[in-house]
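We now fix the convention by which a protein and its fold are recorded. These numbers are not coordinates but entries in a learned vocabulary of local backbone shapes. A record is reproduced here so that you can trace the correspondence yourselves:
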Amino acid sequence: MVEKVITLENVSLVDFLGADNQNIRRISAAFPGSKIVSRGNEIKIQGPAEVISRVNDILSSLLEHYHQYGVITDRDVNQYLSATSEEAEGRVLAASPDVILFGAKGGIIKAKTPNQQKLVDTVMKHDLTFTLGPAGTGKTYISVALAVRALKNKEVKKIIISRPVVEAGESLGFLPGDMKEKVDPYLRPIYDALEDMIPAEKLKFYQENKIIEIAPLAYMRGRTLNNAFVLLDEAQNTTPSQIKMFLTRMGPSAKVMVNGDRSQIDLPTRQKSGLMQALDILKDIQGIGYVEMTADDVVRHRLVKDIVLAYDKHDVAEQRREIEYKQRRREGNDRSYDARDRRPSLDTSDTELPVNHEQAL
């Protein structure tokens, strides 16, 4: 027989143990080969080592659940009792320092890849962080989780999340509804992430009281964003003037994140991405964090990683062909041009043929 004593700290015994210690009695009944006794703020467990380990895991998970929700119900006890050992281990991980947040339903939100963890660490150290990476790498989700954690820890007073509204093949004017109804689909991924992390009623309260703001980038103009965690998502679709406007809104007590994907720029063909320009202009400024995600960080369906890699390979090939084409044209022009008298050379073998008969005339 092995004995273990667990001491409860900062816990309401009635809320955790239940009326007449019913929660502990329920756990004890599930392990007839053991003895579980609650006295004051101590729980004593006696039994075989494997049973002690399992009961300890369940109680640790219940403690994490209590600190998240403030109460333990019969349903909660049954849920943790019926969980497999792997599920219980996953819940105990919530006590580890790499956990970002507990989700709205008690799930654990944490970095799943080394670069996601690098993003978490970088944001902790810097007031401004740029994150680039392909779709599915968790840029938005991890960023929103960090913002919610900062709000819950009272490190900031509000969360402001924005995206540029860019028509990616569709026209806003032809979409049904008022402006909010037209714009909300662009911001839907932000709402989805927040709904995973904050209970619905509390999220509604935060939004109604402007503690959490989700708005198009144009709404940021003229504001000073202070005592806030500010996220600009899909920043590859900003113009140079837009991203400059956004970055210069940063107040002295703000934490700012800028996320983007250089492979999914939806701006008009001749319009330069503000994010790409900002990365070049700001590269020598100290105190700015940079994180680059790769296809290895994709946490969606396994095919997404293969799709990202295939597109990356295609883009590299396209860039190589473009460079080779420009080089051939430059070499052809050099050979067909007489630099001494600025007259065309008689040798026209390398000159570009006219596209049609009108050009020939």
